[in-house]
């Protein structure tokens, strides 16, 4: 009856949606990093001429949305749905970007897992026959996230060695029911897991159990082995969370070698971000830049992206609550 | 001109080290605000017990510039007010003694906030 | 905590084990370096304060007590200005508590939220946020000083 669902948490697509186009915009710090060659637009400063960082974030998300359409000359009215999300309260960046697009809009909140979540849902809409084209995206901005979740940007503080740096960036992919390009063949929707981490600075540690759980379920549900993939890449665990996921998987009987993390890839160690990048924009710009470039060039053929999100708020942290986290996996094959 | 500069350096440095240990050795979630609040309160208590006065004598600005010094000023004012005006003096003395600091912080803080924009 | 009817986590690690794993892997602050930097930066700011006070006494003829108050006000101005120029957060990054604990750090903690929330208006943004950190400091400082004053009345 339900032939598209495999096991407990995974869906496999019968007509796998195609990634027709992609676009990303990043801030100056990301544009200085090791992946600078893979970005479409690099801002010169974090305001980019806007009067607030919130406006800048909405603008770069809109620019990434339009960019993905323009690259393949798809008129915007042929897109059935926009699926997007960000970190700000009431996902204002996505709402404001979608206000300019005039298309049916599905706002998502999955914290830093949003990019994987939007691709998973966008693919389900297409394979389910509810859409022929969906535009999936996510954004974050270092300074809007700092002032919402942590301290004002000019307030002096020493960041913990395990803390991460929110990426300024927006990335989008245009999915279609037919055409040329890499295809989204399966998706595993994660469960919320909370292993009791209360330190909001240590997001990698908060997210690692949920991510490991999704990875294990993905392989169980599809009866696959990690060697099936050329690259298994997590969204923004950072160096601490990456090590923790590998340790959890080892204890659960799974050894993975071809493993990386967008948060670790996006900055070099000289950029002094401590444990690496984070934020919705992190996996969005690394996927739409470096990873899909390497798929196009033939270096990678099968990639599993696991978006990782920590679903706390600054309020819940102040109240001493631990951080629930989630991981969503999408399988992209050439 | 250079009177007290070395003692100020040493005492001030040591008080700041106490703050650094408070941040690094306790559980996370200790923000600068928590450090500052603890230091003011500690200054008031030490001032009330008469233990901060010797530090000011030895270290000069090394003891008055850290926020413990602000707490000490509040406590000293409250105790002086109490001895001259009783309970009313206990209420007003602290703020009176610290009035210049508070007013300067509000005035300069407001002006800077109006003139500048955050750089990020 | 999760309801026992839920499908248990697939990962083979208990929260207790995980806590130990996290503590082992998460890097610790560089304590020795941080302490030395806090001492140097904090000592430096305080000795600048002392020189300002000495200057006020020697060249402006202020009494020691007035010079001390004027010196504190001057440092507050410097801390506020450096915050506006976007420099002070870099000083704290290096100096840690050495730059947070002096009054210049107090000025930073007042100005930075006010600066940041100016977009949200001059009443709630600047006026309100000026006291995000200064408010708690004044509340705890003043309340505890009043208690000290009352105790000293009672002991008399």
Could you say which structural class the secondary elements and strand pairing of chain A correspond to? alpha/beta
How many domains of chain B? The number is 1
Query: How much is the radius of gyration of chain A in Å?
Result: 18 Å
- Strand runs of chain A, count: 15
Residue windows where pLDDT falls under 50 for at least 5 positions of chain B? none
The rough form of chain A would be described as globular
CATH homologous superfamily annotation of the largest domain in chain A: Stage V sporulation protein AD
Distance between the termini of chain B: 38 Å
> Whole-number average pLDDT of chain A?
96
Residues in helices of chain B, as a percent range? over 70%
Overall helicity of chain A: 25-40%
User: How is the quaternary structure best described?
Assistant: heterotrimer
Low-confidence spans of chain A: none
Give a count of the beta strands of chain B, DSSP E runs of length 2 or more: 0
Alpha-carbon distance between the two ends of chain A: 28 Å
| DSSP helical segment count of chain B | 5
Biggest β-sheet: strands ordered side by side in the sheet of chain A: 1-2-10-15-14-11-12
List the helices and strands and how they pair.
The complex is a heterotrimer of chains A (334), B (120) and C (156).
Chain A: E1 5-6, E2 10-12, E3 18-26, H1 28-31, E4 41-42, H2 53-71, E5 81-85, H3 92-99, E6 105-107, H4 114-127, E7 133-140, H5 142-149, E8 165-166, E9 169-176, E10 183-188, H6 203-222, E11 231-234, H7 238-251, E12 259-261, H8 262-266, E13 277-278, H9 280-296, E14 302-310, H10 314-318, E15 325-333
Parallel strand pairs in A: 3-4, 5-6, 5-7, 8-13, 11-12, 11-14
Antiparallel strand pairs in A: 1-2, 2-10, 3-9, 7-9, 10-15, 14-15
Helix pairs in contact in A: 2-3, 6-7
Chain B: H1 5-25, H2 32-48, H3 53-59, H4 61-64, H5 67-115
Chain C: H1 15-25, H2 31-59, H3 64-84, H4 88-95, H5 97-100, H6 103-116, H7 122-129, H8 131-155
Characterise this structure.
The complex is a heterotrimer of chains A (334), B (120) and C (156). By secondary structure, chain A is α/β, with parallel strands linked by helices. Chain A folds into two domains: 5-176, Stage V sporulation protein AD (Peroxisomal Thiolase, Chain A, domain 1), CATH 3.40.47.40; 183-333, Stage V sporulation protein AD (Peroxisomal Thiolase, Chain A, domain 1, 3-Layer(aba) Sandwich). Helix content of chain A is 34%, strand content 22%. Chain A starts with a strand and ends with a strand. In chain B, helix 2 packs across helix 5 (67-115). With 120 residues, chain B is mainly α. Chain B has five helices and no strands. Chain B has one domain (5-115). Chain C is mainly alpha-helical and 156 residues long. In chain C, helix 2 (31-59) packs across helix 3. Chain C has one domain. Chains in contact: A-B, A-C, B-C. Chains A and B meet through loops of A and loops of B.
């Amino acid at each position: 009856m339900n032939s598209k669902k495999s096991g407990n948490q995974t869906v496999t697509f019968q007509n796998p949606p195609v990634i027709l186009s992609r676009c990303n915009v990043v801030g100056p710090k990301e544009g200085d990093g090791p992946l600078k060659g893979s970005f479409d637009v690099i801002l010169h400063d974090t305001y980019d001429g806007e009067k607030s960082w919130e406006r800048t974030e909405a603008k770069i998300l809109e620019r990434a949305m339009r960019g993905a359409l323009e690259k393949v000359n798809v008129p915007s009215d042929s897109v059935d749905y926009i699926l997007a999300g960000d970190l700000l309260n009431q996902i204002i960046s996505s709402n404001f970007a979608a206000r300019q697009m005039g298309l049916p809009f599905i706002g998502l909140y999955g914290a830093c897992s949003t990019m994987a979540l939007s691709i998973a849902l966008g693919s389900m809409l297409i394979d389910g026959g509810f859409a022929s084209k969906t535009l999936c995206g996510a954004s974050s901005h270092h300074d809007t996230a700092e002032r919402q979740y942590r301290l004002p940007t000019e307030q002096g503080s020493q960041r913990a060695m395990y803390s991460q740096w929110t990426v300024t960036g927006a990335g989008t992919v245009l999915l279609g029911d037919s055409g040329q390009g890499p295809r989204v063949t399966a998706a595993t929707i994660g469960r919320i897991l909370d292993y009791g981490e209360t330190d909001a600075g240590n997001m990698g540690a908060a997210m690692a159990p949920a991510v490991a759980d999704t990875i294990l379920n993905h392989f169980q549900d599809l009866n696959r082995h990690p060697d099936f993939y050329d690259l298994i890449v997590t969204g923004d665990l950072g160096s601490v969370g990456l090590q923790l996921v590998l340790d959890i998987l080892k204890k659960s009987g799974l050894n993975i070698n071809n493993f990386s993390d967008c948060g670790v890839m996006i900055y070099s160690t000289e950029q002094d971000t401590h444990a690496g990048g984070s934020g919705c924009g992190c996996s969005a710009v690394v996927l739409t830049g470096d990873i899909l470039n390497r798929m196009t060039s033939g270096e990678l053929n099968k990639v599993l992206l696991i978006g990782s999100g920590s679903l706390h708020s600054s309020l819940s942290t102040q109240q001493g609550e631990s951080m629930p986290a989630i991981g969503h996996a999408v399988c992209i094959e050439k | 001109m250079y009177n007290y500069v070395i003692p100020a350096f040493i005492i001030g440095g040591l008080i700041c080290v106490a703050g650094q240990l408070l941040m690094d050795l306790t559980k996370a979630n200790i923000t600068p605000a928590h450090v500052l609040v603890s230091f003011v309160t500690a200054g008031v208590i030490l001032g009330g017990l008469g233990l901060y006065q010797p530090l000011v004598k030895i270290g000069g600005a090394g003891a008055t510039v850290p926020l413990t010094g602000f707490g000490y000023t509040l406590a000293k004012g409250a105790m002086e007010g109490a001895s001259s005006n009783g309970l009313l003096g206990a209420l007003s003395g602290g703020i009176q003694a610290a009035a210049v600091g508070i007013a300067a912080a509000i005035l300069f803080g407001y002006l800077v906030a109006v003139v500048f924009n955050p750089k990020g | 905590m999760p309801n026992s009817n839920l499908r248990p986590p697939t990962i083979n690690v208990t929260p207790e084990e995980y806590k130990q794993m996290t503590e082992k892997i998460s890097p610790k602050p560089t304590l020795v370096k941080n302490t030395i930097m806090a001492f140097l930066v904090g000592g430096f700011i305080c000795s600048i304060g002392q020189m300002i006070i000495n200057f006020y006494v020697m060249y402006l003829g202020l009494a020691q007590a007035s010079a001390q108050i004027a010196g504190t006000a001057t440092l507050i101005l410097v801390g506020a200005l450096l915050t506006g120029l976007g420099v002070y957060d870099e000083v704290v990054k290096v100096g840690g508590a050495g730059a947070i604990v002096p009054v210049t750090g107090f000025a930073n903690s007042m100005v930075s939220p006010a600066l940041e929330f100016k977009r949200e208006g001059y009443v709630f943004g600047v006026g309100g946020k000026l006291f995000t950190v200064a408010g708690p400091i004044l509340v705890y400082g003043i309340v505890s000083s009043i208690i000290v004053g009352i105790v000293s009345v009672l002991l008399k």
